């Protein structure tokens, strides 16, 4: 039985590596490409989202769902939804969500987030290009319920002042993951 379990873990690990490689290959030249947030800032993202039991948290353009997984580990009594259009990142996100099958608190949709109804979400995380943030802002203003919190990584919403900015020290050599911008709608 132990051997069978070890073989299953090995097969899943290899599958994730292959899927990761396919995701990387598929993202070359894609618009927008899959660019994951640096793993070392995940705890900062979780803190900025201020997740409490019963809240519904969404990651628009969730990629491999690493943000959702980190949030679920920190607060398993909330619900998490990933929205991803790209097939390979979506597959990686689905596999990531399977790890949380016991709690069942992560779901992943393969969908264009411009077509996603945002009214049911209490928290949103975004790691999107500035032009995408600009196009998304009217939708956020229209659909999010009052008091919803939106956290973006690195890029702001043009013309909208963040309620707070979390500078991430020690990120000077990296071009990604230097700050989090927190907005209340």
From TrEMBL:
MF GO annotations: protein-lysine N-methyltransferase activity
GO BP terms, alphabetized: methylation
Signal peptide start and end residues: none
Keywords of the record: Methyltransferase, S-adenosyl-L-methionine, Transferase
Top-level lineage group: Bacteria
The keyword Mitochondrion is annotated on this UniProt entry: no
Gene3D superfamilies: Vaccinia Virus protein VP39
UniProt name for this protein: Methyltransferase domain-containing protein
Protein species of origin: Candidatus Uhrbacteria bacterium RIFCSPHIGHO2_02_FULL_60_10
